[in-house]
Amino acid sequence: MNNIDYKKVKAWPFQEAIKLKNKVSKIANKKVVTLETGYGPSGDPHIGTFAEVLRTNMVINCLKEISDFSTNLITFSDDLDALRKVPEDYPFPEKLENYIETPLSMIPDFTGKYESYADRNNNLLKSFLNKFKFDYNFISSTGYYKNGKFDKQLLKILENYESIINIILPTLRKERRESYSPFLPICKKTKKVLQVPVEVIDKKNGIIAYKENNQYKETLVTGGNCKLQWKVDWAMRWSALNIDYEMNGKDLIPSFELSSQIASFIEKKIPSNMTYELFLDDKGEKISKSKGNGLSIDEWLNYGSSESLSLFMYNNPRRAKRLHFDCIPKSMDDYRKLFNSMKSQDSIKKLDNPLWHIHKKKIPSTTYPIDFTNLLNLVTALNTTNNKTIKDFVRIYLKEKLSVQDEQELDKIILLAIKYYKKFILPHIKKRIPNIEEKKAIEKLLQEIKKLEGEISSEDYQNIVYKVGKEVFPNDLRQWFISLYQILFGSESGPRLGSFFNVYGRSNVLLLLKETIK
């Protein structure tokens, strides 16, 4: 431990870690702090789930910085839950129609790659988490229910059945109250999860009964024969898994409060909690797993770095944020700005810097040498997806020699910039056709460039552009440059034309100018 006063650090992960440390320090002989993130595998992994795991890891990082506690992060998959509706992002939605109300882990995977539908989605989540090198303990709800690891808590819930029912019923609609039970029997014949009224037969031995085809059927609540309604399930897990900390979205605040009341009838285990705001799509609507709206993890990583995604998740977790493709360039630029500012920051400021949390205090030695927005502008102005041309122009733009590491970082973001340009910028570029006067000027520019021989410098090109502009537009030289940008690039600004022509090469420049006056 060092002499830093962590209470002075304003970064939210430190504030959460201090709150958690103060709570668990009161528990006798406490050595391991257990944190949980929950996941419902009813569809492809949701970016909100990834955000929760990432943010919880940031709290763990800070807890390790300020204490000697060991930590255990549980990523819990509620895969015994029933499929309520068919998600829009599954390759074979029509095949899932017959499995509504079936536990996710009992539905076949129609892609043929995994043991079940839940196993497919669980593995997709784990692959994302592994890509970010998270240290976590993955737990399947199905495995724990069937292996009896929740039996002790299930019997405790049955023992306090009436008290728990009395907490929940006032929160339900009238028609729902009539059929509600904390226990959802799983039908042995149909494999469906049944939402039916139950009758407690034997609390000690864990037996309940429910009606099927006007006949009462008895079943054990233990051994995976029943699943809990999720708010009761949530409270049960806190005890069974000894959870000390868990985040949840703002939409689950009432559920957390209700589960906290239920927990008082199990083993009185209620974790330290942080509420975060939800992500919104480009229309300002909540991102939904079933709708598949918003931005996926893969989509972000196709156009931006993993660090920029982590930074977006770190920033303002208690503020609702629009998560769309246009967030990527800003997050890329913010990352570079924070990287450069870290060199001159004192110890407290470094702990407040998001990069300390993103990189688990191991900050890289270098980053990309140009803002992503500026690079996108250059790619747009160059109107090319040729890596070498773009890189040559960046060198001219930066006016400095790049290190080997800088070159490597530059190569990475040029690839990202090209993908972003092709997807989001190129389809919307509208180059205009030159008018008669502009056409004459471009023809004159062509003739002047053709006269150039030998090695042609950026200044040679720039001087010719000025010369032609003064002859054709003597009273408005600025308009000449704007016209060229609009005609050549589809924008009103761009790179210095002399430098661009020099990097682009004489033959390519001549071809480009000829194309504009066809």
Report on this model:
- The protein has 518 residues and is of the alpha/beta class.
- The chain has helices spanning 12-24, 47-66, 93-96, 117-131, 141-146, 151-159, 161-168, 174-177, 230-240, 253-263, 297-303, 306-314, 327-342, 347-352, 354-358, 372-382, 387-398, 404-425, 436-451, 458-472, 477-489, 497-504, 506-516; strands at 32-39, 70-77, 137-140, 183-185, 198-202, 207-212, 215-220, 226-228, 245-249, 272-276, 279-280, 321-322.
- The longest helix is centred in the C-terminal third of the chain and has 22 residues, at 404-425.
Features:
single chain; 518 residues; alpha/beta; Rossmann fold; Arc Repressor Mutant, subunit A; five-stranded parallel β-sheet; three-stranded antiparallel β-sheet; elongated
Terminal-residue CA separation: 72 Å
Q: How is the main sheet built?
A: 5 strands, parallel
Helix content: 40-55%
Task: Tell me the number of helical segments per DSSP (H or I, 4 or more residues long).
Answer: 23
CATH topology name of the domain at 6-172 and 229-280 = Rossmann fold
What oligomeric state do these chains adopt? single chain
What does the secondary structure layout of this molecule look like, with pairings?
Elements: H1 12-24, E1 32-39, H2 47-66, E2 70-77, H3 93-96, H4 117-131, E3 137-140, H5 141-146, H6 151-159, H7 161-168, H8 174-177, E4 183-185, E5 198-202, E6 207-212, E7 215-220, E8 226-228, H9 230-240, E9 245-249, H10 253-263, E10 272-276, E11 279-280, H11 297-303, H12 306-314, E12 321-322, H13 327-342, H14 347-352, H15 354-358, H16 372-382, H17 387-398, H18 404-425, H19 436-451, H20 458-472, H21 477-489, H22 497-504, H23 506-516
Parallel strand pairs: 1-2, 1-9, 2-3, 9-10, 11-12
Antiparallel strand pairs: 4-8, 5-6, 6-7
